[in-house]
Amino acid sequence: MTSPNISVVVVVAAVLAGVMVLGWYLTFSATRLDRLHARLEGARSALDAQLVRRASVALQIAGSGRLDPATSLLLADAAHEAREVDGSDQTSREVTESNLTGALQAAFAEPSVAGDLRQDPVGRELLHELSAAGLRVQLARRFLNDVVRAARVVRRKRVVRYLRLAGHAEWPATFEMSDTPPDTVAGAAFI
Predict the structure, then answer these.
(1) Are 40 and 144 in contact (CB under 8 A)?
(2) How many distinct helices (H) and strands (E) make up the chain?
């Protein structure tokens, strides 16, 4: 008589253990996804801050009077657009930031422009800030895109999709822009 009771207890214990393991796995997956979404928001905020900083430095350079008027106007226009673009429209933000990168590359296409700025202490400081801001934009964008890729991997899992563990969160999108600083400015952060 004891053997049927033992087998029932073993089956119930096995089912409970399976339910507990499944519950732990679902909790682990949901927590991981939540942490990735929090990191994603933090990385997006960090990138936004670095993009604003880069645009501010570009505006300072444009308004410093150390560039020719046409270049200053081109750079000021691109930097102003970058600061005023609607952050909720990612596509227009990417295009606007790429335009600022293009304006910076055009402004510093001639090595003599950066060389003239290096001769002046204020110009050297502005060049240093621009180089540092450009480097920080590159790093922040790469970090954001890495977090986006990690979140996408987790969100593609069947258990996450079928049980809707992501809730109503938007599909994570990478931030694609031209962020290559001008060659004549690239190393100024380390001078």
Answers:
(1) yes
(2) 6, 0
What are the boundaries of each domain within the chain?
2-190
Q: Residue with structure tokens 């950066």?
A: 114
Per-residue confidence (pLDDT) for residue 55, from 0 to 100: 95
Q: How far is CA 33 from CA 9, 24, 47, 70, 155, in A?
A: 36, 14, 21, 49, 8
Query: Percent of the chain scored above 90 by pLDDT?
Result: 57
Q: How far apart are CA 130 and CA 135, in angstroms?
A: 9
Single-letter code of the amino acid located at 86: D
| Reported pTM | 0.84
- Whether 189 has a pLDDT exceeding 60, the answer reads no
- Structure tokens of 121? 């202490």
What mean pLDDT comes out for the span 16-21?
Answer: 93
pLDDT at 35 over 60: yes
Nearest to 85 by CA among 74, 76, 94, 72: 94
Place of tokens 């295009």: 95
H or E stretch covering 124? helix 121-155
82-112: b or e for each residue (b if 16 or more CB lie within 10 Å)?
bbebeeeeeeebbebbbbbbebbbebbeeee
pLDDT, position 1: 47
